UniProtKB/TrEMBL annotation:
UniProt-listed SUPFAM superfamilies: Class I glutamine amidotransferase-like
UniProt keywords, alphabetically: Hydrolase, Protease, Serine protease
InterPro entries: Class_I_gatase-like, Peptidase_S51
Annotated GO biological process: proteolysis
Protein name in UniProt: Peptidase S51
Molecular-function GO terms, alphabetical: serine-type peptidase activity
Organism ancestry: Bacteria, Bacillati, Bacillota, Bacilli, Bacillales
Amino acid sequence: MKFLLTSGGINNKSIHDALVGMLGKPIADSNALCIPTAMYGHPWVGPGVKAWEFISGKEENPMVDLGWKSVGVLELTALPSIGEDRWVPLVRETDVLLVAGGDALYLCHWMRQSGLADLLPSLQTVYVGMSAGSMVLAPNIGEFFVGWTLPNGGDEALGLVDFAMFPHLDHEMLPHNTMAAAERWAAGIQCPAYAIDDQTAIKVIDGAVEVVSEGHWKLFSP
């Protein structure tokens, strides 16, 4: 897969251009599936209006409302109760997965339970994550971000990339997401760790990592 891991969505030209380059064709010719699952596990989001806003492209962070040829919904909590023949071909045929933010460990749990985590490495799809949707691919997320807890505890995520992410750096609505907090977070991470603001994304193609930014970010080495 190709990964475009954002903090706040596709919200500037540099990130938008990176996405189009990864798709290899215009957004208007590309089919998308959006995954809202992470939202249900976060106390500030949950089911209800915010999930609908994400799915319908009405939220402030550009993801679903970019002008896709089509947009469908892939709800991970439903997948264990239906046959793989009902959803795996759909995922294989789509051009891009749009993965919402929320709670990273809740999303991780349902990616594993649904079988999507096992499927991801074999896909040719572009994966676009936002916040928790990006963090879930790391080896672990760090105690700073643990909210919903996994059945076996801990902060282990999917490990599909070899670095961790601290999103929403210096966000005006998140006063605890400071660079000092990111430095403390990174001290407990046993892999490279990026602190990124909402104008920054991390592009990963065949293991090659590139930061795409019109804002500010910092890489912490273990």
